[in-house]
Design goal:
The complex is a heterodimer.
Chain A: E1 7-15, E2 19-22, H1 23-30, E3 44-46, H2 54-67, E4 76-82, H3 93-100, E5 108-112, H4 118-128, E6 134-142, H5 150-154, E7 157-166, E8 172-181, E9 187-188, E10 197-198, H6 201-224, E11 231-237, H7 243-250, H8 273-284, E12 290-296, E13 299-307, H9 318-324, E14 327-328, H10 332-338, H11 358-363, H12 365-370, E15 372-376, E16 382-383, E17 399-403, E18 409-411, E19 415-417, E20 427-434, E21 439-444, E22 457-468, E23 473-482, H13 483-487
Parallel strand pairs in A: 2-14, 4-5, 4-6, 11-12
Antiparallel strand pairs in A: 1-7, 1-8, 2-3, 6-7, 8-13, 9-10, 12-13, 15-16, 15-17, 18-20, 18-22, 19-20, 20-21, 22-23
Chain B: E1 10-16, H1 27-42, E2 51-55, H2 59-62, H3 67-73, E3 80-83, H4 89-102, E4 108-116, H5 143-158, H6 162-180, H7 194-198, E5 202-204, E6 207-208, E7 217-225, H8 227-232, E8 239-248, H9 252-255, H10 265-278, H11 283-286, E9 289-291, H12 297-306, H13 315-320, H14 337-340, H15 345-360, E10 374-383, E11 386-396
Parallel strand pairs in B: 2-3, 2-4, 9-10
Antiparallel strand pairs in B: 1-7, 1-8, 4-7, 5-6, 8-11, 10-11
């Protein structure tokens, strides 16, 4: 990192799946065998639809981040994607995220993983690389807990994105980083396994968090010459619940400096958690305030920032907005099914072979992943997909790419299909009309209690279109979300 | 415009199997059954067939290519083609055979359509891919989901309440059940109460199970030739083909803002061309009967407007007023329609013509209409905004 120009954060974004399950519903389902889970049955957790994963959530957080910065995706030169639950072991997940975000100028891309620390470590690395230009770091985790486990109760899903760079436009300045790496194994998951295995909570708290985190934070503050009293916002990801309070007490940080506990409304989102906490801090910090975020895992990563210029409030943007987009689900079997933990007999229609022609997918990757249609230079009709001939005037090879993901749209026709196989029946589908003129048949998801009707306003979201269950390849495309349903919220406030 | 095919081709024989769940009958037997009836009706020998067109839509039930037909019927050494155009497949077979005769390429041609849907294992239609391009972005909806969307568009355009429209589409199915009960070859032969129809389980909103047609096995065929050859064969009071027209979507309905979801453009296109070819000016007054593609009740309802027999926004009232009942102004689905006669996809277009053929010859038994002159058939393949429509008109020669 060059010393001439300070690095920092330029923008942030967040995504929390709309589906929230009251923990009491999970505990109730297990009460016959595990009555003690009732002790954890507070608040709710965010969980993914069958068609959401770390990639789709990363795209949504990335869009949220890019929407709030002038210049959008144009000046991003590097993309990092941090996750412990990335769908692919060998296929750069970031390449799909980058294509969906249309990061045409990104020269570098990387998947980061290894532990839940990958999110915050990825941010530190992005800050170090920011002398090359603006970097986008996105962390996302779709966390699964074995049915009946503490993790099932506590884990959640979500994503956070940060745009970092140097020069003008910083909202928070990077002050410094402290890293400790020790082979402290509080939990683990071998490659290919679905669930984490945890050691005793008391040991993690007393021998791990209590000894490792305060020391690292104190060392960083001392090196930066920042007294603990100047720290206005502190967040800790990882460790048993209450770890942040414990560390704050050791560091003599007042309780009100602790960032809101996302575990009560979202759950522990793994690699995304420290970046979501940072987003929460950036939404509330005032100029000059110091933010410290720590991530505990095989030691710890600590980053400190100084708030410069709080960003202008933008409706529908950021973590608070993501939290407010909420659909309550209390059917526990739905959570299990969406997570692939029970295999419901969906009948013969689920037998369809969803083999993807990778040749075709590559030829039209910008259309499918980036949702880029075309605008005819002869008649101006915007359309999707781009065929050689214009849908309106028939002119051949007349179209210039035109991105649709952020264009306003509404319902023309719809139905709720109970016959067609969908892992989340009924399958809502219909014609979607973009204000700009394009129209196409789309699946509609996250339809809340208010349902949909002709003219219902829609937004777009990046999702899994189909799963190829024979070859284990998911095809991604865009789906429409009713905006009104998404805005419904009676969510409990973060604790 | 081209001179068209009006009265250039006569139907001299037709056959149609009983439609339904033909568990004990294979596709080859269905083909043979329909063909035997048609040959006997035409009074010709199999060897007089000069060419054949075979319509089948689902390869998994009947196989691909024309070979299943040529083998089942032992049509040796003549051109046999398979055609597929979704639910308009049967009419496509008839179009091929008719054009060949009209062109003078063949003296006598066979059009056959068949489907053996009950060999697929599905209650409805199987899910099929849409090709490597569309599979990447187009949602897989069921057939009812494609047509159910018409209800949203129609209701919204004409400000009709959900309840009123549900009642009207329910009445469409009620009428077809009444008609199907009288047809010995129909799949579903039972009248159904309106209450049962309205309260049936939902398939694709607002279509309940009684808003959906039968999924059937069956085959139907036509033997066509020129009027001159027909007369030479001793035929009198000929039934001739007045028009066969087809329209296929090119993306405008689903790809631009130029369609409001309340009608089917392909039907309007094909109907306009067919009326012109047949010389029909006022379909509501001139048509004696209609067999339309009532794959779903809402489809039949909007089709009444698309064919010009109901005014815009009025079909739902015409239905409730009984205009299309057996004793109404223009009986529609007098044989039970797709709804109750059944819908073996490749056979349906020919089954519709078969009913007109019987009616025009006064051979329709207890459902015989009084002095019919012109009958219209209508097939829709795909979905309302992305599909094909075939309209064919048959009638008495010289009409």
């Amino acid at each position: 990192m060059t010393s001439s120009s300070p690095a920092g954060i330029k923008a942030f974004g967040a995504y929390i799946p709309r589906r929230r399950m009251p923990r009491a519903a999970i505990a109730a389902a297990h009460a016959w065998a595990l009555p003690s889970l009732k002790g954890l049955a507070k608040g709710e957790k965010a969980f993914c639809g069958w068609d959401e994963d770390a990639i789709t959530m990363a795209v949504e957080a990335g869009r949220d981040c890019l929407r709030s910065t002038p210049g959008g995706a144009d000046a991003i030169v590097g993309l990092s994607f941090a996750s412990t639950t990335a769908p692919y072991a060998d296929l750069q997940n970031a390449s799909i995220v980058g294509a969906a975000l249309r990061l045409s100028s990104a020269r570098t891309s990387a998947d980061l993983s290894g532990s839940v620390r990958a999110g915050l470590s990825g941010l530190a690395q992005a800050l170090q690389d920011s002398d090359l230009g603006d970097q986008l770091i996105i962390a996302a985790d779709r966390r699964s807990g074995k049915p009946g486990s503490t993790q099932e109760m506590l884990y959640g899903s979500g994503a956070a994105a940060l745009r970092v760079g140097q020069g003008d436009g910083l909202i928070a300045r990077f002050l410094g980083r402290q890293t400790v790496t020790v082979p402290f194994v509080d939990h683990f998951r071998q490659t290919g396994e679905k669930f984490d295995y945890f050691w005793e909570e008391r040991w993690i708290r007393d021998e791990g968090v209590s000894k490792i985190v305060p020391r690292a934070v104190a060392a960083l503050l001392e090196r930066l010459g920042v007294p603990a009293a100047r720290v206005a916002h502190f967040g800790l990801a990882g460790g048993p619940s209450g770890s942040d309070k414990l560390v704050a007490k050791t560091l003599t940080l007042a309780p009100e400096k602790l960032l809101p506990d996302l575990s009560s409304v979202v759950g522990d989102t793994g690699a995304a958690q420290p970046l979501l906490q940072l987003a929460a801090a950036l939404e509330r910090a005032k100029s000059g305030e110091v933010i410290v975020i720590a991530s505990f895992a095989q030691g710890c990563e600590v980053l400190a920032f100084e708030m410069l210029e709080p960003p202008l409030k933008s409706p529908g943007h950021g973590l608070a907005a993501a939290l407010s987009r909420r659909i309550e689900e209390s059917a526990y079997l739905k959570l299990l099914s969406f997570d692939g933990q029970i295999d419901i007999d969906w009948g013969m229609r689920a037998e369809t072979d969803n083999k993807t022609a990778l040749t075709q997918a590559y030829r039209i990757a910008d259309q499918i992943l980036g949702f880029v249609g075309g605008r005819c230079q002869a008649c101006s009709a915007v359309q999707f997909p781009r065929f050689p001939a214009c849908v309106n005037c028939g002119a051949v090879d007349s179209q210039k790419p035109f991105a649709l993901a952020d264009e306003p749209a509404k319902v023309v026709t719809y139905t709720a299909d109970w016959l067609q196989y969908s892992p989340s029946p009924p399958l809502y589908m219909g014609l979607v009309q973009f204000d700009i003129g394009a129209r196409l048949l789309m699946e509609m998801v996250d339809v809340g209690p208010s349902g949909i009707e002709v003219d219902t306003p829609l937004g777009m979201c990046f999702r899994i279109k189909e799963r190829d269950r024979q070859r284990h390849y998911d095809r991604y495309f865009w789906k429409a979300v009713p905006l009104a349903a998404a805005a419904v919220s009676t969510a409990p406030k973060p604790a | 415009m081209a001179s068209g095919i009006k009265d250039k081709v006569a139907i001299i024989g037709m056959g149609c199997t009983r439609f339904g769940e033909r568990w004990d009958t294979g596709a080859e037997q269905l083909l043979s059954e329909a063909f035997s009836e048609a040959l006997a009706d035409a009074g010709i020998d199999r060897k007089q067939i000069g060419a054949a067109w075979y319509g089948s839509a689902m390869e998994r039930s009947v196989g691909n290519s024309a070979i299943p037909l040529s083998t089942a019927l032992r049509l040796e050494g003549i051109p046999v083609s398979r055609v597929e155009n979704m639910c308009a497949t049967g009419t496509e077979a008839l179009r091929g055979a008719t054009y060949a005769v009209a062109a003078g390429a063949v003296d006598i041609a066979l059009a056959m359509g068949a489907e053996k849907l009950k060999d697929t294992g599905y209650g409805g239609l199987p899910t099929v891919g849409k090709g490597s391009f569309a599979d990447l972005w187009m949602p897989y909806g069921s057939a009812p989901a494609g047509f159910a969307q018409l209800a949203a568009g129609y209701r919204s355009k004409y400000k009709i309440s959900k309840d009123d429209l549900k009642r009207s589409i329910g009445r469409v199915s009620w009428k077809s059940h009444q008609n199907g009960a009288k047809n010995p070859k129909a799949h579903l032969r039972k009248g159904v109460e309106m209450e049962t129809i309205l309260n049936a389980p939902m398939i694709a909103e607002p279509l309940g199970v009684f808003d959906c047609c039968g999924v059937s096995d069956g085959a139907a065929c036509a033997i066509v030739t020129t009027p001159e050859i027909a007369r030479a064969l001793g035929k009198r009071d000929l039934v001739t083909i007045k028009a066969i027209q087809l329209s296929a979507s090119a993306g405008r309905e689903w790809g631009t803002n130029q369609w409001d979801g309340s009608y089917v453009q392909n039907t309007r296109n094909a109907a306009r061309a067919a009326y012109q070819e047949a010389g029909i000016k006022n379909p509501r007054e001139e048509l004696s009967a209609m067999e339309v593609h009532d794959c779903f009740s809402i489809t039949e309802l909007v089709t009444m407007e698309d064919l010009g027999v109901s005014d815009a926004g009025q079909a739902w009232k015409d239905v409730l007023d009984g205009v299309f009942d057996a004793d109404g102004k223009i009986p529609c689905q007098i044989d039970g329609g797709l709804k109750c006669f059944g819908h073996p996809i490749g056979a349906s277009g020919l089954r519709m013509v078969y009913e007109h053929y019987l009616q025009l010859q006064g051979r329709a038994g207890s459902r015989q209409l009084k002095d019919p002159q012109l009958g219209l058939s209508h097939n829709l393949g795909g979905v309302p905004y992305n599909g094909v429509c075939a309209v064919s008109i048959v009638g008495r020669e010289g009409r």
